[in-house]
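note to self — DONT lose this again. spent like an hour looking for the file last time. sequence + predicted structure for the chain T wanted, 124 res
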Amino acid sequence: MRKTKEFLHKAIKAVAGPREHTYGDKYTNHKNISELWSSYLNHYISPHDVAICMALVKIARLKHRHTEDCYVDIAGYAAIAAEIESKELKKDVSFLTEGEKKGIQTLRHVQKLNREQKKKDVQT
């Protein structure tokens, strides 16, 4: 179990660490890749498909040689795929950026103020 946690910790560091600074936002990066692949292949490839295909590249490499890097990257791409899926379906707010969360909070606050104002208007 300790080794599993070690690999997952390395995957977290890879996904949320310097790579995000180097390559930019994970969703945006995978969306850009999906658009390029879709154009090249003349067939729609989703950002989620990109993450899964990148994991499959790592799996294919394991057929030649078993490396720690491949296992860590597979875990990272699986996490990215899950994040993309949740973000696109908006099922899980934990996958939203801080800006998106604040935007939702602001929208809810404005809606509440509007409801309160309508109640006041009706009473007068």
